[in-house]
Every structure is written in structure tokens, then in C-alpha cells.
Amino acid sequence: MSESKVSNKSNVKRQTQLGEVWTRLKKNKLAMTGVLIIIIMAIIAIFADFIAPYDYAEQNLSSSLQFPSKSHIFGTDEFGRDIFSRLIFGSRISLAVGFIAVGIAVIIGGILGSVAGFYGGVIDNFIMRCMDVLLSIPPILLSIAILAALGPGLMNLMIATGISAIPGYARIVRASVLSIKEQEFVEAARAVGSTDIRIIIKHIIPNCLAPLMVQATLGMASAILTAAGLSFIGLGIQPPTPEWGAMLSGGRGFIRDYPYITFFPGLAIAMTIFGLNVLGDGLRDALDPKLKN
Amino acid sequence: MNDQKNLLSIKNLTIHYKTGGNIVHAVDNLDLDLGHGETLGFVGETGAGKTTTALGIMGLIPNPPGKIINGQVFFKGEDLLKKKHKEMRSIRGKEIAMIFQDPMTSLDPVMNVGDQIAEMIRIHEQITKDKALEKAEVMLETVGIRKDRSKDYPHQFSGGMKQRVGIAIALACNPKLIIADEPTTALDVTIQAQVLELMKSLKEKYDTSMILITHDLGIVAEICDKVAIMYAGNVVEYSDKNSLYLNPLHPYTNGLFQSIPDIEKDVDKLNTIKGLAPDPTNLPKGCTFHPRCPKALPVCSEKKPDNVMVEPNHYVKCFLYN
User: Fold this and answer.
1) Which positions in chain A touch B119 (Cβ < 8 Å)?
2) What's the pTM?
3) Is the ipTM beyond the 0.85 threshold?
4) Region A104-109: what's the mean pLDDT?
5) I need a labelling partner for B274 at 20 to 30 A (CA). Which of A209, B112, B184, B258 fits?
6) Radius of gyration in angstroms for the set of CA atoms belonging to chain A, rounded to a whole number
């Protein structure tokens, strides 16, 4: 702790809990690599219009299936579209799907999990058995079923990916609520006259954010992967909107002669997933109070 | 015993816990009175039902497994056990506040202390967040913590300071009754003295009544007006402090006093009360203390003793004084 030079000020260094987590995260090189990847991806997605040299839907059949060159650094696909530009625009879709799908899952799963954990008994049983039903179907199959019912499209893709991830979050939140609600500060909150809802929102949820954040970061990776997979089989984003999974799928017929068509979208997916995963792992370590030193 | 004069009056309170197939008789037919501005020391062994009684008053018995079987808790002349949940919520904190045993766990680790005090104020008073925070800072200063620390989190405070924060929360809405559940057990001795001194002075300043749950007869001697000795879910002796300390009547109370080591004498073995506290799932018949009682009479194992008034304000449940 640094001694403050101003005598009438307190010399206790003030640091929010978030700041503390950040300090710990910074020590983890691998996690910082992940942060860097995510930041770069985010910048690319935000400024896609300025970075991409071509429009993502611009076809030029005379220059189709070109090997990477100066004018097309990642080459072109079978319609002569610039793969680099498509990848850059695709990052928007992938990040949006990742964020929104996980957002849907975290919010719904979080509410269900905290209500189940807090009240227990019949409510708990009912909610968690419903979650078990969802869990008994493989998530990719569940997403396919939902998409088949809703029809393809970006919004439906997010909903499908989100719904299939709900049980995981509900379980994690319920487990941490179960341990948190036994703590004395919850009883203390009751003793000051808090309502149940207030206790859940003000005390329980903030206390189980740590595992939730880790799961959300890792979950974003799997959501992007699921979305890519769904687009790969043609249920997700429809052409000409560029989506990494769909690009992968489009290039698979040319993989022997023009492997770069599939290589670069695959690389983009892999990099993003890698970044999110190491960030998630790093966050888990940084948020664990037992590893404070 | 007059209900009008007493702030709190408990009659025949019986609380059971159901665990497995057993019924735990945590509190059994308890009677208790507390006047305005008085401090009542609640003394007894672990498991005697002190905390359960406190939670019963607050209406916070965890249900299941706990259940209030029977009895009345009159607070300002109204039976708290008949109140609806919503009415109880507005009494908790505003009228009856609680100070918890372990300050390490009774504060929310992810909320700064200023917000925690302000939360109490905002639940019970219709004021803006800024006003509540200002008031919270005043409360912090009242308990001897600089107000610029209101943005700090509990882990940045020492144990004694956390307990001060706990006291600040309890006093924030100026309650009529404070229930302090072993507030100094988790603190070391020097800090204990400070915290007790603070509680005593604030109690007088805010003109509240207090129930102090403790194991420590020394603490009781220091700050209580009245004492209730609890054994196996019941109050066996209830008295003014002076009367009890000068003239302890119940054999259990005597046992407790004899167990206090004498600083002058050189002894190898400390005095104890023989035997163990009874299994609350299977209380002995008659007086619950009779298996351990050195002066047990034949009648003790057959009938439950009634409250006997030996002196004014000195009641004991024992056949020796019938």
C-alpha cells in the first residue's frame, strides 16, 4: 500500500473489487493474450467498414478462386468475393451471436437458477427437472430443433444457441446460491427487513457473479462454435451474409485444390475460441479468493 | 407482569426443530419480560436455545425445519407471532434490530459498508439514496469509524471494526429493541471491551432496550440490568443483576458461578457442573436439570417446577424454593 503524501487524506489505497481482479488478471500472460485477441476482434468488428478492402457481397467471377495475393490477401472464393473482407464482416456476426446468445442464457438461466436455489422445495424441483429435460437433449440437437421450428436467421440463431445453453447457467447459479444463502449476511439482510427479491438481487446475485462470469466467457466460445456449426449445416445465417461457419461450409467442396478458403475462417474461429477460453481460465483464477496471493 | 409496562413479553414460547424423525425441543414453554430501556443478559450453554429464542422474536426461525409450536411474543402490546410477513418486515430492522455473532460473515463481502448501512435506512425510511448514504456516514462516525471509509469493503476492515459496522447497521433506524447474539465472541478480549463499551453508551444514547446473548457472566455483570439463565430451552432463573449475583438460587446458576475460576486461588482442576447438557430430542422428565442437580429432590424427576417469586423481580424455577 502506498503512503499518501497528503497528510489529511487516508492512506488506505482504494481499490474496487473489479480493480483487484484486473490486477491479478494482468499477471497472467496467457489470459492477457486472450484479452488482446478479444479486443482486436472487437475493434475489427466495430470498424469493419473501414478495415475491409472490399464489400462482403461483392462478386467478381473473373477473379474467382484466387490464391492469396497482394490484392486479395486471403484469396477469393468461388464467386470471386474477397475472403479477408468477408472474415472481417463475419467477426460482427460471430461476436454478436456470442454476446447475445450468452446474454439470453445468462439472464434466463440466472433468474431460474437463483429462484430455484433460493426457494428450494417444490419450485426448485420443478425448475431443475425442466432443466434436466433440456440437458437430456444434446445442445446441438436442441439448437437444430429450435432453429428448424423457428426458421433460419440471425435472431433465431441467437435464440436457439441461447436456449440450449440455459441449463448450464441455471445449474451453476443454483449451486452457488445454495451455498451463499446459508451465509450469515443473508440472515442479517432478513433481520433488517429486506424482502426476498431484494436479498436475491442485492446480495445473492452479486455474490455468485464470479463463477457466472467465468462460465459466460467460456460459454461465449461454445456459443460461437455452436452458431458456426449451425451455419455450417445451413440452418444459421443465410448467404450472402458472411458467417465463419457458413464460409467454412461453402469452402469444403474446394478443400483439396483451394484449402485457404476453409483455412482462414477456420483460423478465425479457432483464434476467437482460444482467446475466450484462456480469458475464461484466467478469470477463474483471478476471481478465486483462495488464490489471492 | 404487566403487558403495558413491558416492551417485550414472551409467554409460553415453544419452538421445535424437526430433524430426521426426531423433534428437537429447542425452546420449551419460555416466559420472559423486558422493560423499556433495560438490558437483559441471556446466559446459557451452547444449545440451550438462546439464539433460537432470539430468532423466534424476530420471526426468522428457518422453516423447515423449525416451527413455533405455541406461545405469544408481545412487543409493544402486540403479538408478533400473529403478524403478517409484510408487517414483520417493517418491524425487523426498524423496531427490532439484530447484531450478529460473527462480523466476518454477517456483512456482505461484495457491498461496501456505507451501502450496507444505507440499505437498512432505505428499506425503512422514504429518503433518497444520497441522504441515506449521508446518514450512513454519520452512523459510521457514531461507532468510531472515519466516514471516508464508507466506500470500503468488509475485507478491508478488522474484526472489531466490522462489528462496529454491524452495530451501526443495527442502530441506523433507531430501533426500540436490539438483540445482540454473542456480539463479542468472535473478537479478542481487548476489542471485546471496546465493543461492549460502545454498545453500552450507544444503548443509552439511543434509549433502546437490549437483549444480550452471551456465555460470559463477566459481560453480563458489566452491562446488563437483568439476567435470564437459560437451560435446555427454558429460563430457569430470571432476576435483577444484583439480586442474581449476590444471591444465585437455582442449582444450575450456582454451578455456573462456581465454574468461574478464581484469579486469587491456585487450583489444579476447575470446578464443573457434572454431566452434559441434555439431548434436546429427548429431554428428561420433570425438571430438565435434575439428572445433573446436586440437590435434586424426588419430586424433581416427576413434575416440572413452576416459576417461584423469591424476591421482587427474582424468579426461579426450582422445587427447593416452593
Assistant:
1) 189, 192, 194, 202
2) 0.77
3) no
4) 94
5) B184
6) 23
